[in-house]
User: Fold these one by one.
Assistant:
Number 1:
Amino acid sequence: QHNIKNAMYKIRFGYHNNQGIHGACPVDLLHALYLGIFKYTRDSFFEQIGKESKTATQVNTLSQTYGELLTRQSDRDLPVTRFANGLRTGKIMAQEHPGILLCMAAILVSTEGRRLLAKKKRHFGTNAQKRDWSFLVETLLQWDRWLRSTEMEKSHVKKSEKLNRYILYLLKKVTNRQEGMGLKVQKFHGFTHIAKDILGLGVPLETDTGHNESGHKGTKTAAKLTQRKEETFDLQVAIRLEEVELISLAMAEIDGKLGQYFGKVQQENAVSIPKNARGALGGAIYSIELDEDTQQYQVKLTTKVSGNEEEKLEKDLVNFLFGLQNLVKDSIFQLKMYSIHRRGDQIFRGHGKYRGKPWRDWVIIDWGSEGPFPSKVYGFIDLSSIPTDFRGNYGGIPLKQGIFAIIENATVDEVEENEVKSEIFIPISLEVGIISNNEVTKQMFYLADVEAILQPIAVIPDLGGPPNAYFRVKDREQWRLDFIYFLENNLDLYEEISDVESTDNSS
């Protein structure tokens, strides 16, 4: 680095500060946060594990598993978490770094992840060290959601100046970055000024370059299709861009998606079907049929959906369906279980093998006086045709006309003092009948009216833990609200960090 006298130093760009050119160039979330702080955190995490170590490979594999599990959720607000090569290698875009940290947070809180990290006693040997890492990663995710708010209270911004410095201290202490200049970089220092930048220039989204950067994608793709000769490069890029645009318009017109063409409506008689007019039930359909020879009920897949493969249903689920069919046989000769329920634009799935892997959504169900509980969906049953005077109880509820979800119920666990506490993951336990040899050998199913479904949620298993142990992932809006809670309550956050001093990684 060289100390030079910049011609811009004496120019004042606004009355809100005296920082000159530096005050006019605020911290950019895309480059400073995602390609700076978040990237440093990921790199330091694997640096402390050992980049080429066997443990790093195992942790990376675990991240791929959690990335896939986080993707197959009915809560679609989660960041991108599916990375073909895991977290260590491969081309990762700036906007995907929150997903990297979310996978890291899942590893740090899971039983298997803590077991693997405990092998590296120098940096992860104690619960306090693992908790420091977990606290750092989750705080960064909450911080990111708050910084990306469309509006902020002025009082919160002023209070954040102190909290921002605390986060930087936490980052420095936990990561102990040794690569390059460590954390003696502008991307780190710039966040000490971000509160003043927000007060002077507005929320960080006003100065974020993410949307401008995304505009380069088409041009970059077109550039790869040229001969890459200097004298014809510009012309060939322009031609490729025009060709892509014309092909896109042609495909849209073929599919009937092009509403206007030279100002004229082509499909004057086209009727728009509102999305909520689609069928409420669909997907793969299973029927419960009576075998005349054996006089036993059988579950058969009666329809297939593109990309869906026939799966073998769990024995306890089949028995649950048999019992229900036997109860309503006088009203419904052939009961059917559907794998999809739609509510407007929201799709709830109960697939046992969707495109080769299970996709069973989790939801919050309001059980009335008993309160809301998380539940795992296995399918949907239409009981609309049973008589209004039908009398009978099944699956924990009195049966009536309507659409019902077949679910497993879960309860929220108490966190023990010696466990790694989390700000993003809530431990829950699935209600099961029997656990034998660390496997669930008896499941417990219930029926719940689909009208009692309050919201979709994201839930992942505690890999390496008890077979009925899971974590509910708080939605990203709650991450932002939790960060505001920190700001409003003036918590002594330095007490959250352990007294274990970080050591130099270079030795």
Number 2:
Amino acid sequence: MSNIICSTMHSRYRFFFQCLLATIVCVSPVLAQQANPMQTVGTSSTLPLGGNAQPGRSNPSLAQGPLSAVPEDFSDLRLAPGFLLNVEVYDEPELSTQARVDHDGNIVLPLIGSVHLTGKTVAEAEKIIQDKYRAAQILKNPQVTLNVEQYASASVTVLGEVQAPGRIQLLGPHSLPEVLGMAGGETNLAGETIQVETPGKDGPTYQTYHYARGKDGNELREVMIKPGDTITVKRAGIVYVLGAVNRPGGYVMQEDGTLNVAQALSLALGTSLQAKIGSVRVVRHSPDGKLTAIPISYKGIMDGKVKPMQLQAEDIVYVPVSKIKTVFTTGATMIGEAGAATIYTAP
């Protein structure tokens, strides 16, 4: 009898342990799922390009993609019309929102209304919003976090004698040499004059800067270019050396933008054997459009007794052949030669 009782109890305990084990197997995945929530693949970008993200929610398109590249000048970013901002007020979800900077540079926030943020950095904008909530006695110690969800395209236009003229994307201010470097630098025909046009409410303003490759350009590093500016690198002046010279053509007034008669003749590889050096002339365009012939003492310059005349852009140094008596008899031919002359730059 006792053996039968023991056998029955053993069967019941075995059935109990089997049921307990089955329960543990079924419940374990549920507990594991609760203890280990769903992992997010990837990380949201610090500079998202989409504008559909909601406060307190991650953007799925960003969460599943790689990090977006942040421009190197993002730290200098200043808010401008068109920016989409994500404003989060700590522990106040009803005050957190997204707002786009309007044409006047304002955003509208709950309870405090319009806030002007154009030209401010992110840190400055955060402080302005905090001060607004504090001044309106809505929050005693507001903590505001501002993130840029979308930023408006900002660029600088570089024109003239640069290697790659066009528009350059620029978020923050950069020095003038840096912007010229982004455009590939100056060409061999670049002069010493650089003009910067800055837009304004009352119309654009213009600043002119002088720079020569043979001089120290430290002062240009202090010139800051902002988004919206237009830079124009002027072409260097050209002086034409024509007539009885070994290499007639046009010569760019490079470096410091100056060139005298002796230098121009030297660039033209000197006079030829047929030159009538006693009748060398500089032909200059007068303001009224007429041509003025200025005689040059070539022998005095070569002897070091006469200081070489400084030339101006578009001047023509004409060395006549010995058969020609005056420069005026071939004036029309000389102007035609200048128009077809090859332009040379210093090596």
Number 3:
Amino acid sequence: MELGYSTLHRGAWNNKYFERNFLGKGAKYYSRYILAGNQNLTNFNFTEPRFMDTPVSAGFDIYGNETDYSEQSGYKE
């Protein structure tokens, strides 16, 4: 976990987690969440190195990013 400050986003909280042997099965799991003033960023990643006991890896990513510029410009992204 990290705490920080920037002139653009003001206060910031950053939380990351990475596991190379998720649930003891060799799968990779990564998550990250950033809450910074007017910005929220979320990222989840999961990779199975031997999908269905084959030499093929498979995985997925879920992410989102929301920035609120309503005070400066009147819109959200």
